Amino acid sequence: MKRAFTYLCLLCLSTLALADGPSPVGQWRSIDDETGKAKGVVEVSINNGELSGRLLKLLDPSEPNPVCKACDGERKGQPIEGMVILWGLSGSGATWEDGKVLDPESGKVYDAAVKVIDGGERLELRGYMGVSWLGRTQVWERIDTAP
């Protein structure tokens, strides 16, 4: 009886862990939602409970070592490769919300939410202004194995 109870508890705990879904932590190939082409490699990480993403590499830059010409403030004129483009998201498991995302081409910063889908193989990034339905979604592809 004691063994059956222990087994049942472990089963419940593992089900709760899976309910959160796969983690967004890892490297992702960003896909342009207008052209369908891969644009870059983004490394997503969690630090102090906050999800963020750094652009590691542009896949087909229009010029060598591009900088963020359209950005404001501290990002203006800084190299795009290595730049944090996703920050401030809170959540757990597969769903993170209430953050910001930078479009380095336009220099605009949007509200952001991410959700891991397809068993951890793809990530939906929703960028919007004010309310989520006023925005666009990009679907990124995982390029490493889920942690």
How many structural domains can be distinguished in the coordinates?
A: 1
Helix fraction bin: 10-25%
Order of helices and strands: HEEEEEEEE
Give the class-level CATH name: Mainly Beta
Instruction: Tell me the major beta sheet.
Output: 8 strands, antiparallel, barrel
Class from helix and strand fractions? mainly beta
Report the mean per-residue pLDDT as an integer.
Answer: 87
Features:
147 residues, mainly beta, Lipocalin, 1 helix, 8 strands, disordered N terminus
Short structural description:
The chain is mostly beta strands and 147 residues long. The protein has one helix at 2-19, and strands at residues 26-31, 38-47, 50-58, 84-92, 95-103, 108-117, 122-128, 135-142.
Structure description:
The chain is mainly beta. The chain has one domain (23-142): Beta Barrel (Lipocalin). It has 1 helix and 8 strands; from the N terminus they run H-E-E-E-E-E-E-E-E. The protein has one helix spanning 2-19, and strands spanning 26-31, 38-47, 50-58, 84-92, 95-103, 108-117, 122-128, 135-142. A hairpin with a 4-residue loop joins strand 6 and strand 7.
Summarize the topology.
Elements (H helix, E strand, L loop, with lengths): L1 H18 L6 E6 L6 E10 L2 E9 L25 E9 L2 E9 L4 E10 L4 E7 L6 E8 L5
